[in-house]
Specification:
This protein is α/β, with parallel strands linked by helices. The chain contains twelve helices and ten strands.
Length: about 325
Amino acid sequence: MKRWISGWRAGLGAAALACAQLAGAAYPDRPIKLVVPYTPGGSTDQFGRALAEGMSRELKQTVVVENKPGGATQVGTNLVAKAPADGYTIVFATNGSMVLNPMLYKKIAYDPPRDFKIFSIGAEAPLVVVTNTQVPASTIRDFAAYAKSADGKLNYSSVGLGNALQLATEMLKSDLGIKVTHVPYNGSAPALAALLANDVQLMVDVVSTSLPHIKAGKLKPLAVTSRNRLEVLPNVPTVAESGYPDFHAATWFGLAAPADTPPEVIARLRAAADSAVRDPKFRATFDGLGLVVQQPRSQAEIDRYIEADRAHWGKVIRANNISLD
């Protein structure tokens, strides 16, 4: 009898283990929600939706995009921080939500290193330094000379306080040794309208929103902030090429899940995201919009990338004493 009970228990344990393994292998067995903490239609939303589509094909399960804008990405991001760590709720992550916000806001409900595992860096969004046709400058050095002669009377626009565009402009001002007054706007459309009207004379913008105005001859690209020239602006030099060799600024788009999500689920999600960004059609679409689609990274490489990004922008924020609350 004892041998029978012992055998029965062993069989039960083996069955339980098999069921657990089967359950793990079945992930995902229902749709996954990707929270995008931005309004529909912008480059971030477009990239998130394309990632969701590519991941759906790989996972054989629908990845549903849910837009949750507000609070400089904090509304949607915090929603995912509090979600069950089961791999069925993930967030579209950017350096704004995962790097800048925690350094800019003292009152913030989530802490990225504690609350999230960033498992994909899908693209970098390099920036372009633009001016209007009324400004007598065609290069960064030309603009620096013009700004110095204007003796602090020039302005620059951004999409608001504390975002990567404003911080990159402050970096540029410091490197060029110029004084230009910041005028924040509520979004890229009014910021670009002000530049076109010569209410401001400079803007550092994501390439995708300035590109139509550049192609129409209404804005002049002075330089790009990436490490290398961009395919969509092959004749525009980098800031580094223009005589400021240490200059580099870019925002990034990626994916994150609640920190306690099981490692095997994170690995499955990362593999699906990697499959999406490897797709030639996907890469061609977003390279053509001025995004630099990234090669897949290991988790260790992603962790190092994020730490370096935090160190880079932290230095800028501290140097300019920027705080948003």
